[in-house]
Amino acid sequence: MKAMILAGGLSTRLYPLTKMVPKPLVPVAGAPNAIHLLRYLKAYGFDEVAINVHYLADDIVATLGDGSQFGVKLQYSYEPELLGSAGGVKKIESFFDDEPFLVIGCDEVTDMRLDRLFDFHRERAAIATIGLVECAEVDQYGVVVLDDASKIVGFQEKPAKGTERSRLANTGVYAFSPEIFAHIPAGKFYDFGNQVFPSLQAAAERFYGFRATGAYWADIGTPKEYRRASYDVIRGLVRIPQSSPNGIDPSARLGEGVEISGAVRLGADVSVGDGVSIQGPCILDDGVNVETGARLERSIVWRGATVGARAELRDTVVGTRYAVAAETILENALVADG
């Protein structure tokens, strides 16, 4: 089975974190989310995967390789100029065969049952099926309206509270049949959400929404959702395929008088100095150095970064190899080089 990961965007909403780290390599609980997605896809039988790349493409290729270490065959589609979500899929139309295929964004953290999504898609001989989750608040999401047969009859983009016609959010997980390519022009920027989907709905095509009841979903393209998904992983609220468990890696070095509470993940070769306080949820990726007397609350520190002595971090994300100066106080911040 074949799938495509959409990864061409710049992820500007996470700047400055993503100035030096491309969108698909944003880490979630210790590993780039693209790696989690490759393992997730493999678990459902998707063993041939394409990914489109644009910004810092060489870094992505160096990290993911040919996909064999994740059990898949990985093909890259280079986009010197961005083509949009649908245009990027159209560019590699020849990659797909005559069977339904999956498209998923590199921002997605989910445990949706892809087998059930595809059963639903095939049973209805659909051209397109959107995976949907029900959310208590949908003012930050694209909302999908269904009829009684689960056919898509309308959309709302980030509706103001109280105006929503549905609480079903578009997850960015799509099942397509090859007929979809007739609805995407070649060689131009084209988008699923703004162009393809409204035209399918207006033409009353075989276009459905799959309610992924009980599934977890987060779009980590915003700081709030990135933190939520990361913390939910280490809290055990969502299970993603991981190469190492949460908790404290055996190679981590802890000084005297270190206080750790709540859900945490301390990666390989993390060094924590004397008198440090870490109040979870907190994630310290591999090679992080936290110096004497620092305090961390609800924060994420990416690979190789340093938190200086007596610095205080609350609700903060520290970028790869960034050095937080001693005695710095950061709250609700994103800091990174670049």
List keywords for this structure.
29 strands; 2 domains; Spore Coat Polysaccharide Biosynthesis Protein SpsA, Chain A; 338 residues; UDP N-Acetylglucosamine Acyltransferase, domain 1; alpha/beta; six-stranded parallel β-sheet; seven-stranded mixed β-sheet
Distance between the termini: 39 Å
User: Which strand order spans the largest sheet, edge to edge or round the barrel?
Assistant: 5-4-1-6-11-8-12
Number of helices: 6
At CATH level 3, the topology of the largest domain is Spore Coat Polysaccharide Biosynthesis Protein SpsA, Chain A
- What is the domain tally? 2
User: What is the helical fraction, as a range of percent?
Assistant: 10-25%
Q: How large, in whole angstroms, is the Cα Rg?
A: 21 Å
CATH-defined superfamily of the largest domain: Spore Coat Polysaccharide Biosynthesis Protein SpsA, Chain A
CATH architecture of the largest domain: Alpha-Beta Complex
Plain-language structure description:
With 338 residues, this protein is of the alpha/beta class. The protein has a seven-stranded mixed β-sheet with strand order 5-4-1-6-11-8-12, with helices on both faces. Strands 14-17-20-23-26-29 form a six-stranded parallel β-sheet, with helices on one face. The protein has two domains: 2-235, Spore Coat Polysaccharide Biosynthesis Protein SpsA, Chain A (Alpha-Beta Complex), CATH 3.90.550.10; 247-335, UDP N-Acetylglucosamine Acyltransferase, domain 1, CATH 2.160.10.10. It contains six helices and 29 strands.
